Amino acid sequence: MLNVLKQLQNEMTSKDDQIRAKATHQFREQLEQLDVNQEESEFLIEFFLHKLSDPQSLLDTTYILLKLSKSQKSIHPTFIKMIQNKQIIIPSFSREARINFYQIFLNFPITFELASLILQSIIGEKDPRNILVAFQLCDAILQEKNIGSQYKREIFEFLDCYYPIEFNEKADPRFQIKKVEIEHILNKCLFSEVLLNESILLLQDKIVSAYDRAQGSALKSVMWIIKNQNKITITQIEEIFESIQKLAEQVIMDDDVIQLIPITLIEICNNESFKKVKAKIKTISLKTIEEIPATQQGFIYFNFLKLLVQNNEETIFQDIVQIFNKKFDTKNINVTQKRLENVISTIAEYKKYNRDFISELNNNQKSQLYDKLQQGINHKMQNVFILTLKCLADIMKYYIDQQQNLEIFLYNQINNRELLEQQCILDYFAKNGIVDIKQYQQLLNFWQENNQLLYDYSLTCSLYNIQDHFSQFTLNLINNQHPQIKSEQISALKGYLDNNTIPFQIRQNQAQLVINHIYNPLNKNRKNKLIKQLIQFILKQFAFSQNIIKDITIEYILNLEDEQLYYYIPLMDYDLNENLIQSIHEMIYKQDFIQKDVQIINRRYIYKLIYSCLSKYQKELNLNFPSISQMEILFNDYHLNQLQLYLIILRQQMVFNNEKVFEKLKELSQSHPQLIIQIIKHKEVENKPFLQKSIVEIIKQLNHKQTINYLINQIDEEFINDLANLEVMQLIIEYFNDVKIDKLKQLALIVNWCPLLNLKVIDQLAKLETNDIKVLYTLINIVMNNYEEAKYNLDLYNTGINLFKRYLNYPKRVVRQAAQEAINEWCIVFFKGL
């Protein structure tokens, strides 16, 4: 490397800026390919340290110093001296140069002298990429406790400025770092053993601050401390909890903070070292929901208690019921509703973790709970009645002796209640079953004649113990005797068929009844999406598909009405009869298939069924498709349904990179663009360059803008990663030249292509017009991202300025402001490069 330096010496000392910069870059490239011994590197470091005063080659010089420092055991003394004497002022350098210096510091063991240099160098850092490394340097100093203690005031003051970290990782694609990375290293530094006492005070201030982001970040830091810092004391945890208490008392709070408080408290309680604090938190939580349950504070502490249910040793239900039995007051409606909701929610939480809740109650508490709920069931307020009934539905199996009495009461009440209350009563019956089925059937008969709305709802309640009634409902449903089939009714039937408490054979017989009616060719079933969904569900749950498929022939299919064939489409997802597939294959190439035969013409679903069948099996069966020229004759009228079949042939031929296929596709793309995307996204094509070339040719043929827009909207990330090249991109961007963009979809695709963009494409991009501020920000990010790649290219600089200047007189102030900020940043970065 000394010989290389000697060869480039004249160029490196030239008075011409560009010659010096080029020589330094050449040296850097040579250095990347060779190893340097320690003796050589010491001399080279000395030389290039003095070259830092040359701004034209600054960035390359810092890269060279970083590379050379890796062969050194300790930091070069000249480097230390130059920083101490202010000959090198690292904060004044460009971002990339600063981060190179930070990386140099990371290469060496921390000493008192080096720690001092680091703290001088990282002051005022603002770029998130550099801040991340600056925090790593602080962490390295703090790992050396004696050194960290010496400089703890300086380190704390530096870190304090950044806490909590403000960084939107989605705002700028250049950063490519996660906020969680910066938060983790900042927490690691602030809450290290050296700084812990000072940082806990800072943490408490942030928890009770009026700034919601500070509150949220502080709570996340508490959780980090619990998991990662074992030096924290019980006293400090108690002080933190006191701050969280004050935070919970605030009236106005961000939703994220409301969610974080219970999670933070549960993290404290899950630590075995803080049992004393856990008991205090639980006591305060129970007291709060007893005294002020219908408040935000009560909501927060109740959510904490629910999280405790995850621990099998915790007995929360007993405490909740005791408060309910003691404080159930039907006069204050809000409080009454909240206490009922708390009981219902606690039961749901126990069920979520398969825990038995009723065993926590003694007989007296259990009896008292039912008595209080009886007060609620007699309440005139609708919400109290509904919540009480929901609660009874959860616990009634533990009060078998009371079930018939409650049922009689509900029978007497149901016709006098509002519809919502009636539906709630039916939901109760669906969940707990019916003792007096005869009386319930009398109610059904009455509703069928006098209350059709309630009768229809009763059919959706999945009343599994009235099997005869449900079977009759199934027959009526499939035979379309109901004027309208509702999604709730289909859901009820699915629920019945999927209920594991009913013997499998009974459910299978019920499903077979449904299938027999649907696939009976004598039944004239009307097309219905809900019935199709039901078929898909049944075929998945029960092994019926093969019994249906084995009897299907091509003659059978052609004799069915088109709407009947609609229900055969789901069968295409299963293994089909090979003879059926072969017969379809033979049939579609006969001359009479394209003639106006009564069996074929205008039949949408016969085409769809054939298309689905061939599309699935074209490769597996290795069918010999006819040539393109034959297909042109067979499908010369280009009916859309026939084209679907035609595309199967094209796809098969495209696997073998048939150039005639793409000639035909160019022709089809003008009239049927929605079909072309099926070809473009075909995954089995092996020759990628051939496909790229063909796509370019197809796009060139698309002169209709709506067609191009459709095509672009169908392109996804998979296409970009696999097939996007500069020529395809350039064609698409050219399409935008005279179009005003109001949506981000296509522009987002271009952002993903940023690494491929060149100056010509960016120049085209600068011609885009938009009235959407989000689109403008995206444009700014695209240009800035590629600007950095271009290494201070003057032409690119002018392109960017022209892009932003266009918006300086825009009517919207926010657009003008964004454009001005972009111009300012553009100029600053560019002139720093100079």
UniProtKB/TrEMBL annotation:
Superkingdom of the organism of origin: Eukaryota
Record-linked Pfam families: MMS19_N (PF14500)
All residue ranges annotated as the MMS19 N-terminal domain in the record: 6-245
Main localization category: nucleus
GO biological process, one term: DNA repair
Family: Belongs to the MET18/MMS19 family.
Biological role stated in the UniProt entry: Key component of the cytosolic iron-sulfur protein assembly (CIA) complex, a multiprotein complex that mediates the incorporation of iron-sulfur cluster into apoproteins specifically involved in DNA metabolism and genomic integrity. In the CIA complex, MMS19 acts as an adapter between early-acting CIA components and a subset of cellular target iron-sulfur proteins.
Name of the protein in its database record: MMS19 nucleotide excision repair protein
Organism field: Paramecium primaurelia
